[in-house]
Specification:
The complex is a heterodimer. Chain A has five helices and no strands. Chain A is an all-alpha fold. In chain A, helix 2 packs antiparallel against helix 3 and helix 3 packs antiparallel against helix 4. Chain B starts with a strand and ends with a strand. In chain B, strands 6, 7, 8, 9, 10, 11, 12 and 13 form an eight-stranded mixed β-sheet that branches. A five-stranded parallel β-sheet of chain B has the order 2-1-3-4-5, sandwiched between helices. By secondary structure, chain B is of the alpha/beta class. Chain B is elongated, with a radius of gyration of 27 Å. Classes of the chains: A mainly alpha, B alpha/beta. Chains A and B meet through helix 1, helix 2 and helix 3 of A and helix 1 of B.
Chain lengths: 111, 343
């Protein structure tokens, strides 16, 4: 996948509008919530619960767009619109991207 | 304009960011984490506007919009939908369900504030208009208009009609300065309205010192005849108190006459498309008006017809006055007096 983990323009705009300190807190909130959403994706996938799966992917997409995490957003969008995948690999790919996104966000928030 | 806003979103990051965006503009913000909680909060306290997410567990945004539309107290609440749900059909569905607008997430703060400003302004104008309507129409008529819309013409209902006026009002007016007459009328109307509304009646006309009230239309009312008679008794007792107060300042007593009749009538809006009034028409209405006129001749405060009497419990003290020929009525009407002979 190409492009930076975080789109700097989106992130800067968010900081300018909401304030650096608030955005740093918001990043921490996302870091707290996101693993739970990935967990929800996995459990919904295992249970074949299509609505729960879509809602968790939708939430991840929405938050990724807020922070400018465009790659993560694209993966989440793929899951949201694609219905239940045949195998869990797509969720693994998203978890890997999330693992790269969180430290990138924290580092930008501290800058 | 600073407002009281509710943010309904199941996602914590979205909730916090929206609340922050709104608080930075000085608004007071509360949050709900799903549709059910949001509805409960809207029913418990007053909000000026709702920011609503669509994808939520436990009542989604569409279901919240449907619930608001069905709730007479919340149907006018402005709702801005904020969602990252894709597809024009979702936007259309929200607007059709009554949302003011649909803002895609992430929400652009400038656009959000512009939309909130215009929604609140529209709401302010709507409230000002409702306030104006309230001054000229009864709450029951407003509710009837809300439910069925405005259409000239009527429908047949069974109800009770009351006419009331002040005895010797013309003579009284001649002795009073105009300002005092207006003040007297305002006090009189306030007391009579309270008594009539207190029993579920609707005052639909005021002419000089007279008024017409309906029990059982536009909204149905159980025991409409009994309620009308109880209102008449309340009105007479209220006037006794009012007169005692006037006597203290050396002013003459005000006497009222009340006529009540029950039966079928046509209720609806008469007038023109531009200016109309809610009223009832029919023989029953004429009888009530004639009975009110007849109170002077009979020397009684409250007169009712046979159909009203039949609907009363035995606890109401009555005196049969027999058949009376009323002006404009071919056949004589059986008339009953409620309460004591008037002084």
């Amino acid at each position: 996948m190409t492009g930076p983990v975080i789109d700097p323009a989106t992130f800067d705009e968010l900081r300018a509008h909401a304030g650096a300190e608030f955005v740093a807190e918001l990043v921490e909130t996302f870091a707290d919530e996101a693993p739970g959403l990935v967990g929800e994706l996995r459990s919904a996938f295992a249970a074949g619960a299509v609505d729960r799966f879509r809602r968790a992917a939708h939430s991840l997409k929405s938050n990724s767009l807020t922070f400018g995490a465009m790659r993560l957003a694209a993966l989440a969008r793929g899951l949201e619109l694609g219905g239940l995948p045949a195998e869990g690999a797509a969720i693994d790919a998203l978890a890997v991207e999330l693992a790269a996104t969180l430290p990138a966000l924290r580092s930008l928030a501290r800058a | 304009m600073i407002a009281r806003l509710l943010v309904a979103d199941d996602n914590k990051v979205n909730r916090l960011l929206l609340a922050r965006t709104l608080e930075l503009k000085g608004h007071r913000v509360s949050c709900a984490e799903n549709g059910r909680v949001a509805l409960a909060m809207l029913r418990a306290e007053a909000f000026d506007l709702l920011l609503l997410d669509i994808e939520m567990p436990d009542l989604n945004g569409f279901e919240v919009l449907e619930a608001l539309a069905a709730d007479a107290k919340l149907v006018d609440l402005p709702v801005l939908v904020t969602s990252s749900l894709e597809g024009l059909d979702h936007v259309v569905r929200c607007i059709e369900l009554g949302a003011e607008d649909y803002l895609p997430k992430p929400v652009n703060p400038v656009l959000l504030h512009a939309r909130i400003g215009s929604s609140l302004e529209k709401q302010r104008l709507r409230r000002a208009q409702q306030e104006l309507v309230r001054r000229f129409a009864t709450p029951e008529v407003i509710e009837d208009l809300h439910r069925s819309g405005f259409a000239l013409g009527g429908r047949r209902v069974r109800a009770t009609v009351m006419f009331s006026d002040i005895r010797g009002f013309t003579g009284l007016v001649e002795t009073l300065p105009p300002e005092e007459t207006i003040e007297l009328l305002n006090t009189y109307y306030m007391l009579m309205f309270d008594a009539i509304h207190g029993r579920g009646g609707v005052v639909n006309q005021m002419i000089g010192d007279g008024l017409m009230a309906i029990f059982g239309a536009p909204l149905p009312l159980a025991d409409h005849a009994h309620r009308a008679v109880l209102a008449a008794i309340d009105m007479s007792e209220t006037m006794e108190l009012f007169n005692a107060e006037r006597a203290g300042t050396g002013k003459p007593a005000i006497r009222i006459g009340i006529g009540i009749a029950t039966g079928d009538m046509v209720a609806g809006y008469t007038g023109t498309e531009q200016r109309a009034t809610y009223t009832c028409i029919g023989d029953t209405v004429n009888i009530a008006a004639r009975l009110e006129t007849h109170t002077k001749t009979a020397g009684r405060g409250i007169l009712i017809d046979a159909a009203t009497r039949e609907a009363l419990p035995p606890s109401v003290a009555l005196e049969a006055l027999g058949l009376v020929g009323l002006k404009g009525k071919g056949a004589a009407v059986d008339v009953f007096a409620v309460g004591p002979a008037s002084p």
